[in-house]
Structures
1.
Amino acid sequence: AFSTSNYDGMIKFLRDFGFTVAENPDQLVPFFEQGRGARVSRGGLQFQLEQSDLPDVRARFNLFITDATDEEVTRLKTLGYECKTEVSLYGEFNTFRTPDGGMFVL
């Protein structure tokens, strides 16, 4: 589970990035915090995002998403997300910053 004081921003970000977000799905979410909570999933990856009432709590996690398509990357750029594109021996990588300061690499 990840806690954040920027719950709404992170939920929007995760939905925009193709994650399935189920807010307050059962009595076990949120588990650690007293605010709102959501189960978040994409493919086989699942985690909980929970709202913290403490200021400056960040869900700073970094993900390398291997199933993103070129169309998805283009859509994210048109939504206004800042993207850094790099090319290596293994292909093109697009890095997006999360509202909490983490990185998603597609």
2.
Amino acid sequence: MIAKWIVLIGCVGALGVAGCGGGGTGSMKLGEVASLARPGDSTKIYKTYKYKAAIVSVKQAGPNDLKGETLLGDTSKNDVAFYVTQRVTGVQAHYSGWTPEPPDVYDSSGSQATPLVTGTDLPQCVEHRPPAGFGAGQSFETCDVYLLPRSDHVGKVVLPAEGPGQNDLTWKIS
């Protein structure tokens, strides 16, 4: 299933919501929290999963982190890996079968980074799924790996919005 992110229309500063508003793209610093909603599965009743998300860290992989890994697809062996960690907090009770979508990552010039696909989890960046019983008020972190050419670095991490009048949520990386 391919899902996209939806920014809630009602943004309230007192709740720690960032990146919302009319026109333009919201820009946040690492760790700033945004309230989001994601369309869920549609059977007889359409559910929206509401939660808070924050990009909490972007770290460059060490020189030996990918040594011995089998890289799948058209991955360049000369690229550098970056670990992008997202913290997710549940704000409603039912999340059965739900998982957050990975963000889009861009270099400093605006070119999109390549998501890394390996045959195994990397010990430095294990993708975490919501724990059993994940619900309102609970948090967990998920990590995704992206590749950029050696001369580049991560410039921004984006959770794309869906729908008219809604903005992407962008965390600027300095």
